[in-house]
Amino acid sequence: MDHHSGPSGDPSGPATSSTSPTSPTSPASSARPTSPSTSSTSATSSTRHGPPAPASHAEAADGHEPAPGGELGAYGVPVASDPVTRLSLDALVEAAADAPGGALSRLMTAARSARRPAATTGVAAPYAARVAAMDALLASAAPADWSARIVEGWTLQQLIAHLAATDGLVADAIGAPVAGPAVASPEVLARTADMIAFAAGQAPERTRADWRLQAEAICAHAASMDPATVIAPGGIGFPVSDHLLARMLETWIHTDDTAAVLGRPLPLPLDGHIHPTADFCARLVPWTMLLSGMQGGDRAIRLTLTGPGGGAWHVPLDVARPAVPDDGSPVQAAITCEAMAFCFLLGGRGAPAEFPAQVEGDAGLVRDVLHAAPALSGP
After folding, report:
1. For the chain, which domains are there?
2. Rounded to an integer, what distance in angstroms lies between the CA atom of residue 102 and that of residue 100?
3. Is the pLDDT of residue 185 over 50?
4. Among residues 375, 334, 326, 374, which one has the least CA distance to residue 357?
5. Compositionally biased, Low complexity: which spans (predicted)?
6. pTM (2 decimals)?
């Protein structure tokens, strides 16, 4: 999902993309019970925030000794104190538990080599966490997995090149090192084509490393910036904090796409990372209406998002009036739905006509809001 908009009420407005909304993908694998389904916008609210269960023996289940001073969790995976790394390792542990043949050894090697997220505090934290989750999936990929078609006809390696391309536009805007060739075009698909061409013939691990190092550079640079600093990838300015949330959302969605195809479990983001992303999506609603040619006028909706990371917002449908936490102000309609499902709807996953929501008030207005929701999504 590639957002080029001004959700904070920036009168500069959104930059329209020439790409159409991403179509819903095939049903998610049953191996991912904690992740939103990409075939519909419903999502479960279950998640696991605890560390892997401790090993019952001093020696790991696969015969590896713990590192000096380290603690081993299930199947001998080191227990990480960082919750994001812990969730990523949990995903690999769950996959390994049912893995056939030699996959257990390969997955455990990958788990031990999984890197910590580049940043776990500040405005970059949600994005850094999803980068860590995707990196954990990539660490477990078999050679054949890199040629699997994930989404948009892209192989896994090409999908990572696409993420590096869209991330690279933000990196270029904040002065961070950019992966691949110099940015020749600010348009997402053009930059993606350049990055896919650059990655052609490379070992997949090189593409992974280029993407990951660029993400780390973005996080490091953003950590020293005022979150309200306006940057303008593609020529349209809005706060760097919102650009990072857009990057979190697209990385989350494509990690989910990848987990579905590869049959890996995927832990949910932390609640504290889902909430700012949900807030970002709530603030995008008037922009999606505008881009879809629908006039919000002086109307407003109440958006109540349930489950992990949820909340309630008063959302004016005029882009000049930003959404705020619900204060009881009058609205013409109210929508209650699951927070992660709503984020994925704006990310182009699911059919608006079938979106599960409780509705009050003007049903026609709600229909317009939901049908417009994916307007800013891209590949």
Report:
1. 83-271 (1.20.120.450), 276-376 (3.30.1050.10)
2. 6
3. yes
4. 334
5. 1-47
6. 0.75
Rounded to 5 degrees, φ, ψ at 304 are: -110, 115
Q: What is the pLDDT of residue 50?
A: 27
DSSP secondary structure letter of residue 66: P
Q: What percentage of the chain reaches a pLDDT higher than 70?
A: 67
Predicted pLDDT at 266: 87
pLDDT at 142 (0 to 100)? 95
Res 151 pLDDT > 70: yes
The alpha carbon of 246 is separated from its chain's Cα centroid by a whole number of angstroms, namely: 8
The answer to whether the beta carbons of residues 62 and 104 sit under 8 Å apart is yes
Q: Kind of pairing, strands 333-338 and 300-306?
A: parallel
Number of helical (H) and strand (E) elements in the chain, helices listed first: 10, 9
The distance in angstroms from the start CA to the end CA of the chain is 6
